[in-house]
Predict the structure.
Amino acid sequence: MTTGRSAREALRPEQFELIAKALADPRRVALLEAIASEKSCGCTTLRSKFPVSKATISHHIKELVRAGLVSAQRQGQFLQCRVRRDVLEAYTSSLLRRVGSGTDPAS
Amino acid sequence: MTTGRSAREALRPEQFELIAKALADPRRVALLEAIASEKSCGCTTLRSKFPVSKATISHHIKELVRAGLVSAQRQGQFLQCRVRRDVLEAYTSSLLRRVGSGTDPAS
DNA sequence: ACAAGAGTTCGATGATTGTCTAACTGTTCT
DNA sequence: AGAACAGTTAGACAATCATCGAACTCTTGT
């Protein structure tokens, strides 16, 4: 389904920073991992996997959405969230590009 | 010089977390970027590029070394530090692998 | 031995942040 | 309408962290 070109190009510095900060908390990465591996991933479902309150889950999801790593939409009373793998890949690409040259003497 | 197999395989969770935290500070990423683009990169050289004290530079470098993203050795009174690009790549690989499946319905 | 320079270590401080409880909004079902 | 459930928001608190100045170690050159 072609993914849309969306985040394939470079990230804006602001988003780069938001992503890096979002990934800095191990719990949040675990959450991201759980979202990626689940089909439906409401707060309550996720909450049953982590020993944190639903307020904390909600907060983490908000941060992940703010960083662009996750897209979420209400489905009735539930929250449907999916991992934006393209954004994650854009981040890793940007990171490798920024810290790329220097080691290889070919440049 | 074949790089050694070093960090090609998966990172230990502990190091994964250290790296993520190390990359969370924009200044530290900028520092990492500067180290990657410079040949010699002592604290004083780096300090001239960022408006921070040498104590702060030293602290950031220590964190980068602790995370394994940079290797540093004293060369006389100077500090010689290089970016461990293999470790950075191991991090991005681990990240993509962890948050990998789930979006594609093929599994 | 002495001075100057490069980097480290030590507290201290202000800002950020992960977490909680409690109160709130919105949805679904009877 | 009312109860139960899903998620959000607000305020508070503790922990972490980036930063600094100052004192320290180690090296180099005189």
Chain B touches chain A at residues 13, 17, 20-21, 23-24, 26, 29, 32-33, 35-38, 82-83, 85, 88-89, 92, 95-96, 98-103 (CB under 8 Å). Residues 42-44, 54-55, 57-59, 61-62, 74, 76-79 of chain B lie near DNA strand C (CB under 10 Å from a C1').
